[in-house]
Amino acid sequence: MDYSDAFKVLKNDQVMSFLIKRFKNEIDITDRYNNDYAKAISDLIIEQQISFKAAITIKKKFNVLLTKSDNLLDIPDEKIRLIGISSRKVEYIKNVYKFFESNEFDFQKLTDEETIKILCEIKGIGSWTAEMFLIFILFRQDIFSKKDLALINSIKINYGIKDLSNKKLDKLILSWKPYNTIASLLLWKSIEEKYFYRF
Predict the structure, then answer these.
(1) Angle at 107 (CA atoms; ends 182, 48), nearest 5 degrees
(2) CATH topology for 4-27+144-193?
(3) Is domain 37-136 given the CATH code 1.10.340.30 in the classification?
(4) Could you report the per-residue pLDDT of 12-24, keeping only the tens digit for each?
(5) Which of 61, 66, 72, 102 is least enclosed, having the fewest CB within 10 Å?
(6) Where are the domains of the chain?
(7) Using an 8 Å Cβ cutoff, are 172 and 159 in contact?
(8) For position 51, what pLDDT does the model report?
(9) How confident is the model at residue 154 (pLDDT cuts 50, 70, 90)?
(10) What is the CA 106 to chain-centroid distance, rounded?
(11) How far apart, in whole angstroms, are the C-alpha atoms of residue 173 and residue 183?
(12) Model pTM greater than 0.85?
């Protein structure tokens, strides 16, 4: 995917300019894409509140489990728990599959707000998961998730802000428009690689 237009805008921010120089060829919005929406959201549920490495391992096991069954809803909960998914997440994942079994949406025709509203009707899906879906599955360009701790921590370190108020955060989000998604990819990469802007 071509990020050149986004980089032109974001380079006006000295921190973003610094991160673009280092990571411009390493960020990839497509690395979690899956056109099976139920599977895509289930992967996002697995990622919640666990480390990046643990999530990769569990998602691989989840893929293997899915290849052995025509329908995830037919797999006993216990089998899914055995690969490292908590009882609560098993419930949420099954809710997602039930939802998409009985509903069909053309998300490409829906706004960001409409998509978030629909997904948050599924028990176990909150705004963070819906925003990740917008970023990594629908490739929306202007999404920032205020509930993503890695993003918040990356901002605090890169911008030297110990006390990140909502007002300061909103100011940054406004300055990155209409490319908050690309700013987020750079901030995630920064914290993942422990490579930060130095004042």
Answers:
(1) 60
(2) Endonuclease Iii, domain 2 (1.10.1670)
(3) yes
(4) 999 999 999 999 9
(5) 102
(6) 4-27+144-193, 37-136
(7) yes
(8) 83
(9) very high
(10) 20
(11) 9
(12) yes
Phi/psi zone of residue 84: left (φ > 0), alpha (ψ -120 to 50 degrees), beta?
left
Q: Which residue in 35, 121, 59, 45 sits closest to 89, CA to CA?
A: 45
Tokens 């419930």 locate to: 91
Measured in degrees and rounded to the nearest 5, phi and psi for residue 82 equal: -65, -20
Local structure of residue 31 (DSSP, 8 states): T
Query: What is the rounded distance in angstroms from the CA atom of residue 164 to the CA atom of residue 179?
Result: 21
| DSSP assignment of 127-183 | HHHHHHHHHHTT--SS---TT-HHHHHHHHHHTT-SS--HHHHHHHHHHHTT-HHHH
Q: What is the tens place of the pLDDT at every residue in 65-120?
A: 999 998 999 999 999 999 999 999 999 999 999 999 999 999 999 999 999 999 99
Residue matched to tokens 């509930």: 147
Question: What are the tokens at 86?
Answer: 């908590």
